[in-house]
Every structure is written in structure tokens, then in C-alpha cells.
Design a protein that fits this description.
The complex is a heterodimer of chains A (about 280) and B (about 325). With about 280 residues, chain A is mostly helical. In chain A, about 75% of the residues lie in helices and about 0% in strands. Chain A is built from eleven helices and no strands. In chain A, helix 3 runs antiparallel to helix 8, helix 3 packs parallel to helix 10 and helix 8 packs parallel to helix 9. The radius of gyration of chain A is 22 Å and the shape is elongated. The chains are: A mainly alpha (about 280), B mainly alpha (about 325). Chains A and B meet through helix 2, helix 4, helix 5, helix 8 and helix 9 of A and helix 1, helix 6, helix 7, helix 8 and helix 10 of B.
Amino acid sequence: MTLKAIGKNSIAVTGIVIIGIYLLTIALSFFWLPFDPVKMDVDHLLEPPSLATGHLFGTDEFGRDILSRIMKGGFVSLVISLSATAMGATIGIAMGTWAGFLGGRWDHWLMRLADVLFSFPSLLLAIFVMAVLGEKTWNVIIAIGIVYIPQFARISRGAILGVKTNDFVRAARSNGASSSFILFRHLLPNIIVPIIVQISLSLSVAILLESSLSFLGLGVQPPAPSWGNMLSSARKVMVIAPWTAVYPGLAIVFLVLGFNLLGDGLRDLLDPRLRNLR
Amino acid sequence: MGRYIAKRLLSLIPVLFGVSVIVFFLVRLIPGSALQMYLGTQVEATPLQMEELKRIFGEDRPVPLLYAQWLGRLFQGDFGYSLRTGRPVLPDILQRFPISLELTILALIIALAIGIPQGILASLGRNPAGDVINRMIGLLGLSLPQFWLAALMVLLFSGFKGWIPMGNYVGFFEHPLRNLQMMLLPSFAIGVGLAAVIMRYTRNSMLEVLQMDYIRTAKAKGLKYRVVILRHALKNAILPVITVAGFNTGYLLGGAIVIEEVFALPGMGRLALYAIYQRDYPVIQGIVLVIAALFVLVNLATDLVYAIVDPRIRLDDAGRSA
């Protein structure tokens, strides 16, 4: 797959453009924000969006600028999403490849463990883990990461089992290649495709999980802004000030959409079976 | 077939055992003991009373023993008592089950009713621009946070108070019409995301089937287009869609936590959430265990339905050594 191939896929390109816009906006937030995102302003409570006041997305019930809070909260959401996916992917892939490569007893027990983790609906598992760890931003990463471990484990194990029996692996083994050489040189490069797709989908789901947790008051704690906790506090005032709920929600929708488009586009490009279909 | 079902049912036992171990020991890791939660900060207890309370709460016994005792009582239908209300846990869970079940079924109906026709249409129009737009709409459906969609709908319909009754929950058998009115928005909020998933699966599955030789044969025979699509293609394409719907049913059952909270529906998800807010350990243990068990059972049921409809699956599974 080349960059040129990605460039031709309009779905993937749209996703990359959306994610790019978010990254630039979040980078900008380190140097410049329209207003102080945590400073209260009693003279401008619940002001509707307007160019004249400079509050493009309006203000919330404490007079804080919503656009500034979305920009600041975007960094939090993105860091959580990236770190949680990295954690889930690293541990899950290690577990899955190990189980798939070694087989036997290890395979059996690791996969039973994955089955057990799979028995919890993801949000319930995340909420449960948050209750155990306590409501801190770091713990949101761990909670979502734990949700992801069995998913990555199952996918990488399946992929390893799929390539393990290929002739080129047997050939390498009969040539006297060591197990770790076969694993890193022959097996891992061949399972990278499903994993890349899973990573981009996980990034999108992590944004949704984080916002759900924060919405329920179990994730990022106020006054630090996050898209989820902005929506949570907007619940009380949204009937008289709809903009408090509309804009943070749109921020979530478009970033999640960006990751979904990228994942879907990559799947087209990487899966030869699907490529023939279009 | 009976053998297959029995085998699959037996394979559930270690999984459920593992779930119970995880639930029990994780709850023990939550900061603050059940006894502290029960007493609160206002109560002064004499040392003698504390001894007695510790004995009742099992703090004088090792955790593995407590686990064994808990498990033993579970089999007798005794899930313990809520620290907040003092009521037994299991009846409280059972009382909330029908609400979550109704929400799940309605959401599933909405999702299938939107997703399958949309998916079929998406697989038929083969112009590239329409295809891309279709896929983007599907992905957009996947990207909407349920609770945000729910909040927007509440906002939108707040002008029609008579249409969408808010406030106290009314059971289906008390007042069917009012109950359905109440459940409409929440089921829709949950159903939309699933509709997007189902649409995508229907489309992909239809595309695969439409390439088959028997479709070409059917067309060549001069059968009507509608017959070819609905009778020949859809019938074969629908199987994977049903599986996906089934697996998501389990997810809906427990995953509707946020929606139940937004609409103040007293379902199982909300019970779990408030148990966690209030650190009500026996309730947390009970409800998490029940939701996980339901989740596993629904997934198994989906597998079995699939195996009954498509005999190839059973042969496949028998062929595997594990």
C-alpha cells in the first residue's frame, strides 16, 4: 500500500482531513485560546453564540467560553484515546501473539481470560474499573485500555493462527530459524493489517467511551474541561441554552467520524477480498 | 444438535466462574469497606458493637472464604442485601429486568427496520458518488454518542410535552400506550447506532452474494428483479446480519446505562450505575454478574440460532480440535 493509494480513497482522505483539522486546532490551543477555559465570568452567563461578544459558541452556566473549553477538552480526549488504545493494543497484541504462537496450555488460559473480559459490555466494564480505581484522568486510560485488551488479543491470535501454518513459516523453521526470528520477521508483519484497522476503530470508540464516562461523572473531573463533562453540566441548562449541549456534542461526532472514516478507508485498501468488490 | 448445544452450554461454566471471581475480587479493591459505607461518618459504635458488625460483614474472615460463601449463597438465589435500602438484591434486579428487556427489543426492532432496507438499497445503487455518501451516512450513525442524541431529542421534543411523557416511569401492563410513548425516544437513541452497524453489514453481505453465480442464473432465467433481490439474494445475505444483531442485543441489554440515566428509566443499567455511585457493594456484585451472564447467554443463543440455520457452522466447529 502506498500513500498514493490512500490518496485515491476518498473515504480515508476525508477522515485524514478531519483528524488533521482537530490536531491543528488542538496544537493551536497550546499557544492561543479565545478565552480562558476555566475562568468564570458572572457578567456573561449563558450567552448565545455571537460574533459581537467574541463567544463564537456561546458561554456556559459559569460564563466560560465554550469554544475555548472544547479546544482545551479536545487535548484531554485525544490523549486519553491515544493512550488507552496504545495500552490495549500493546498488552492485547502481546497476549494474542504469544497465545497463538505457542499454542497449548498458554493459549487455552489466555483465551479463557479474554473470554471472561469479553463477558462484560464495554461501558459496564469501564464504569466498574473506574469505581475500583477512582475517578482520575489517568484511570480513564486504564479503564478503556482494559476494555481493549481482549479485543486486540483475539484479533492478533486469530491472525497469527492464520499465517502460522503457511509454507514460508515452515520453510524458515526447517532452515533453522529461531522462534523469535520467525515471530518478528515472518509472523508480525503479516498480521499488521487487521491490527491497523482495529487501532483506528479503537481510537474512535475510546472517544465515545471517555465522553460517556465523563458524562456520567466517572471520568475527567470538573473544572478540567472534557467533552463528556461539558455535556454533563449542559444537561441542567440545555433547555434555555441549547448551544451548551450542541457544540461539545458536534466536537465528539466529527472526531469520531474522522477515525471511523480513516478505519473504513484503510480496510478497503488493506483487505484484498473487499477490494474486488468495488 | 443436542450434543452441540450441551457442549456449548458446558463451555459457559468456566467463563461464568471467571466472571464471578473478577466481580467479587474487584469489588473488594474499591477503596472503603462495605462496613464503613454502611456506617457512614455519623455513627459511633462501641468496640463491642464493632466486633459484632465486623463479624456480620465478614471482615474477620479471609477473602477466599468469603468468596466461597458468596458463591454458595448465589446458587440458593441469595444475592445479599443492599447497604442502602436493606432490601434483598435479587428481587430488585428482577424487577428492573423487564424495563431493560423492553428497551432492548424496541431498539432492536428500530435498528432492523432502518438498517436492513437501507443496507439493501446501498448495495444496489452502484454509482460511486452515491456509494460514498451512503457509507458516510452509515459511519455518521456510528459516530453519534447515544447520550448526546438522546439529549438533543429531549430538547427537540420538549415543546411537545403531551407526546413524549417524561417523569415517572409507567409499566407496559399498567398503561401500554403511555409506556410505548415513553420508550420511543430512548429506544430510538440506542437503535440508531445499531441501525448503522446493521446497514453496513447488510450492504457488504448483499454485495458478496450478488456476485454469486446463482444470482446471475436467476437473472438469466428472466426472473423479476425484485424476486432475485428479495428471494435469492437477501435470503442468503441475511445470516451474518442476524448474527451481528444478536451479538449487539447482549450489548444493548447492559450497555443502555447512559440512556436509562438520561431518560430516568429504572432499568438494570441505572441500577448498576447508582450502585457504583453509592458504593453499594452487594448490589454492584449482583447486577454486574447478572448483566454479564445475560450478555454471555444472548451471545450463545445467537451462535446456536446461527448453527441451526446454517449447518456448515456445526461441522466447522466439530472439525476444530479445541
